[in-house]
Amino acid sequence: MPRIFEIFGKPVSFVEDKTIFYEAICPFTESLCDGGGNRNQTKIKLNDNHPLRDYFNEELKSVIPAVCSIQYGTEDTSEQNRTQETWVVCPRRLFGFKNISTTIPQTNRGLQPHEEEILNIANLPSSQEIGIWSEVYLQYGDNETNSQVDYHFDFIAAPIIRDLSEEQFYIQHNIQDSLDKKDIIKSARQGGVCHGKSGTNLSFDISPDIEHPIIFEVMTASTSGSNTEKGTNIASAFEAAMIGNEPISPGINKRQVWGRMATQLFAKSALAEAWSGKTFWIVQDELLSNIERTTQLCVAEIETASQENINFISMAYDSLGTEQSTIKIRQVYCNYSGISFTKNNAAVDILLPKVLPHKKELLKSMLRRKLAAIVRL
Fold first, then answer.
1. Helix (H) or strand (E) holding 134
2. For the chain, which end, N or C, has fewer CB atoms within 10 Å of the first or last residue's CB respectively?
3. Distance in angstroms (rounded) separating the CA atoms of residues 130 and 127
4. Cβ distance 287 to 257 under 8 Å?
5. pLDDT at 78
6. What is the H or E stretch that residue 278 is in?
7. Can you give the pTM of this predicted structure?
8. Do residues 250 and 223 make contact, with C-beta atoms less than 8 angstroms apart?
9. CA angle 47-50-51, nearest 5°?
């Protein structure tokens, strides 16, 4: 029977004093828990007579169920045959960079050890600051082909240069067209990294070096159907975990997650390669093992691949059964996708967008977003 394993980053069974969650802060983003950004429909309204009202700051009118992971498995009559799996259901648990401040984030603020591991695996330079942008939306319309490109990237990382003049910025990114310059300024103002008046004193606080952009996509399991009457929906399970009852939760949805991931896996990897970058897929080991069991993917064979443009970073729990459950990299698997942005003249072309957006479109998309983090490795 599935049960909640972690709330607010801590194993439920080791937390006796729930007042430590008074501010509803996620330890991985150091900000108000948002349930991974996809759990708003489960929001709990903390009215005066709600059982959880006294557990949280009175200024909080609602909370998102802060469920990081679920323990799930089958139990045999004999102890040695019992199997138990712990599934991460919140992407912040694996990669949690987020900045809610209106200012540029402090270097290495909130950086977790396993996140530093991931960034090092991507071979990001250790000699300079790295900017990380979250939830980057690339929307691009091509008039010649009458096509539309619309992609969402979980995270994009790139080295940054601070304090450039308008001219220096345009030289760095080879921006010459006046319309592109206007779009750049508009995007940078939206992202809060551009100040002053164009042609006089315009300056850029931050400029990403996107010669080799690194894209990070985070894939976790989701929860399956729930039963509100039986208290097995995610909100009821979270409430039970907080007040000390048995936190029976919804089960794990594995196949649906992989179905959504498959198309993006090829398209985003091909895009990154065409931009002289890479895409890394951060996946929990349990989910990757399930993909192996249900598809022809064999990660053991991936390690010998001669070409590499699909990269899996497999994450695993390192200290289950202790008060501080930690996550670390279990393995990195790289392989050739079998497709490229050059037309393959095969049915796999359906996985790729019609056109390849120029890098300056990626730059505009990044600048529109506020920096999620700055790190120095």
1. strand 130-142
2. N
3. 9
4. yes
5. 42
6. strand 278-284
7. 0.91
8. yes
9. 150
